Amino acid sequence: MSGAGTVLSFIVVRQALTQGRTLPYVTALIELDEQPCLRNNAIVDADPDTVRIGQRVTVPVVEPVASGFPIAEFVVDEPAAN
C-alpha cells in the first residue's frame, strides 16, 4: 500500500481539543488511492493556509507516540494551486 491519497475535505483546528498538538493544525478526510471508497480521517502535517481540497498527500511510516500506538500524519505531495 502506497499511503497516497487525496484531500476530500478538511478543517483547521484553532482551539485545543487535545494536549500535544501545536495550534493551528489540519484534520482532513483523505481518500486512499488503493481503495477509493476507503476514507481516513487524519492529521495533515502542513501549513493550514496551504491545504486545499483535491491536494495529493502521502503518509510516511510512523513511529508510535507516547501512547504506544502509531498515528498517521499525512504530508502534502504538491504545493496548492492558487
Describe the overall structure.
The protein is mostly beta strands. It has a single domain (4-76), classed as OB fold (Dihydrolipoamide Acetyltransferase, E2P). Helix content is 0%, strand content 39%. It is built from no helices and five strands. Strands 1-2-3-5-4 form a five-stranded mixed beta barrel. The mean pLDDT is 82. It comes from Gordonia humi. Residues 1-59 form the ChsH2 C-terminal OB-fold domain.
Q: CATH fold name, please? A: OB fold (Dihydrolipoamide Acetyltransferase, E2P)
Largest sheet: 5 strands, mixed, barrel
Q: Write down the CATH class.
A: Mainly Beta
Report the span from N to C terminus: 30 Å
Principal-axes shape call: globular
Number of strands: 5
The mean pLDDT is 82
Provide the spatial order of strands within the biggest beta sheet: 1-2-3-5-4
CATH architecture: Beta Barrel
How many H/I helices? Answer: 0
Helix coverage percent: under 10%
Rg from C-alpha positions? 13 Å
Strand content: 35-45%
Structural class: mainly beta
In total, the number of domains comes to 1
Low-pLDDT ranges: none
Short descriptors:
82 residues; mainly beta; OB fold (Dihydrolipoamide Acetyltransferase, E2P); 5-stranded mixed beta barrel; 0% helix; 39% strand; globular
Q: Layout of helices and strands, plus pairs?
A:
Blueprint: E1 4-13, E2 25-32, E3 39-45, E4 56-58, E5 73-76
Parallel strand pairs: 3-5
Antiparallel strand pairs: 1-2, 1-4, 2-3, 4-5
